[in-house]
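FORM 7B: Structural annotation worksheet

SECTION A. Query
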Amino acid sequence: MRYYPVNLDVKDRRCLVVGGGAVGLRKVRTLLSCGARVTVVSPEAGSALQELAATGKIIWHRRDYRAADLEETFLVIGATDSEAINQQISSDALSRNVLCNIADRPAACNFILPAIIAQGDLVLTVSTSGKSPAFARHLRKELEGQFGQEYKTLLELMGAIRSRLLAEAHAPEAHKPLFEGLIKGGLLARIRERDTNGVNRLLFDILGEGYEVERLIHWHG
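SECTION B. Predicted structure
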């Protein structure tokens, strides 16, 4: 099986998680972090999910899954310990053209979830195409050690610079050499070293006056 890599925009979309255990909780938290409107269906739920429901962050239907739960649903994740229920979710979703993931059951999914490494707007994913989730998690841990907070800061700064350039009516095609100059000039290394003066010297050399890091983002080297 070869999968088509894609990043989904789930902001304000209704997403369903069936199952109230630890796996369901992980799926819920990831969906919430991406801005989804999450509904959980499960007769029982752990304390963390109950707290999310009590504070209005999710909707929890304390009952068994029904096919009707998929109405107006963008995607569903099955996270129960019942093979029969998981298979029913998969079948119902397929017949309704709903995106479906069944935890640890690639054959029952029309999309699978990769291991995720996130630093702000930098998102790296690792997939073994469902062959070995354990190895994907192992690679994720290795990559987490390589991509630290400096990448989050770099993207915040790059985004602020891009917005500033666009506001000044710079032609978008003129931006490429500027950003390439910042990257090749060692901007990431200077951020990693928390070298504010070095960052500002590079910004001045490439962009000119008015692009001091302190004026662009909230960062103190």
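SECTION C. Observations
The mean pLDDT is 94. Residues 21 and 42 are 9 Å apart (CA to CA).

SECTION D. Sign-off
Analyst initials: ____
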